[in-house]
Hints:
Layout: E1 6-9, E2 17-18, E3 29-30, E4 47-56, E5 62-72, E6 79-81, H1 83-90, E7 96-99, E8 103-108, E9 111-116, E10 125-127, H2 133-142, E11 143-145, E12 153-155, H3 169-180, H4 186-194, H5 213-221, E13 243-255, E14 267-276, E15 282-287, H6 292-307, E16 315-318, H7 326-334, E17 338-341, H8 351-363
Parallel strand pairs: 1-6, 2-5, 13-16, 16-17
Antiparallel strand pairs: 1-10, 3-4, 4-5, 7-8, 8-9, 11-12, 13-14, 14-15
Amino acid sequence: MPNERVVNLDTGASCTITRCLEDFLQPPTPLPSTKIQGIGTGLVVTGVGSARYMLRADDGTLIEVNLPHVLYVLDCCIWLLCPRQLAYTTGHEGDGFFLTSSTNHLVCYGHTITVPYHAPTGLPILVTAPGISAITAFCQDTLKPSSTHPPKVSFHVEPPSSSRVNLTPAQCLKLILHDRCNHVNMGTLNSWIHKGHFPVDPAIACSPDPVCLACQFGKAKRRSHRSDVGSILQRYHIPGVGVSADQLEVSCLSRMMTTRGLPAKQRYRYCNLWVDHHTGYIFLTFHVSKVISEMMGSKKCFEDFAACYQVSIRSIMADNGAYASHQFQEAYVLANQELTYCAVGGHWQNGVAEQHIGIVTQTA
Length: 364
């Protein structure tokens, strides 16, 4: 399935434009010396091909749409979907895009999709159904198939020896895929394997499911909330009043941006995540280490960014990791800010940030 996209339904467009190769069913046909005319005059068209999008109707129906003659424009700042091209491709009577004063409705194969106006821009914005192509691409890049028949596969990283006791090769492979897919439940993982989303033998989906030590530990330590059963997001109606913070470590090192000279030898391995409860805005900073000074620098970058929009950070919620250190707490006292963090058996105050880790990991 394709990844989630934020698409602008452009009623004045003559064709659909994408800025990502993952949208195409096959590699696009190159179009040398071709540029866009109109609003995006001057943008270079790299290629053209058939792209696939997954839309979710208001009734929950998942709709697959394959659009031909989609332009691949790397410098385009947003995905543009041409409603006329969509209706022409489906060929279904009554399909089209219908605008109203408050919301819009896209009809595709007879199913209605409500498309709201984006508040800052006033444009009709459609969010496609989330997919797993980023996960499968990551697994394909990190799995090295050998010349033998699957599931005999050689891996970059082997699971810990303690987790491979009495496991068959198929179960070892399934356990690695489970870990690299952000500990997705085994039922969903088996479905993805059976559909051929991974470069492994689909028959391993029928093998017994292994037990993940990390998931078992999480279930054993899970605690119910003692009070305050409402949503965290309902408490905050102003940007900056409530923010969740967390830190994550990536398994694939990322390169540092270089504008001149030789490429930097250092690699980013850590990321600090800040999520505003009211707006849902995600702010990321990348680091080569996870020392306190890096975290303090990330906090300052976030506060400076918020100050540009006249937003003052009042309260930050974090877990009981490095954010609970004495140096970090002292910084909040000096800034007259409130810092809350969870201990064992307490509330998960930074649950909002925890929920976004999977999204950030898939789109990074």
